[in-house]
User: Which sequence fits this backbone?
C-alpha cells in the first residue's frame, strides 16, 4: 500500500530518495516485482499515467 504515496512523493519532488537509501532500495525492489509490472500493465494499458480528475465544487 505504501508504494503509491512514496513513489508519488518522489516523482513530485516532495521527498529526495537519496536521503533515504533504504526506502529507495525498497521502492526499487517493489517496482521490479513481476506482480507490480502486471498490475501496471493492467492499470495503464497505454503506459501513461492519467492526471487526476479536476475537483468539483459541491
Assistant:
Amino acid at each position: 500500500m505504501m508504494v503509491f504515496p512514496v513513489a508519488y512523493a518522489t516523482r513530485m519532488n516532495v521527498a529526495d530518495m537519496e536521503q533515504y537509501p533504504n526506502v529507495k532500495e525498497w521502492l526499487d525492489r517493489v517496482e521490479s516485482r513481476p506482480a507490480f509490472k502486471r498490475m501496471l500493465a493492467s492499470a495503464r494499458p497505454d503506459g501513461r499515467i492519467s492526471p487526476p480528475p479536476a475537483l468539483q465544487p459541491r
Notes: Helices lie at 3-11, 21-32, 34-43. The CA atoms of residues 51 and 57 lie 18 Å apart. DSSP finds three helices and no strands in the chain.
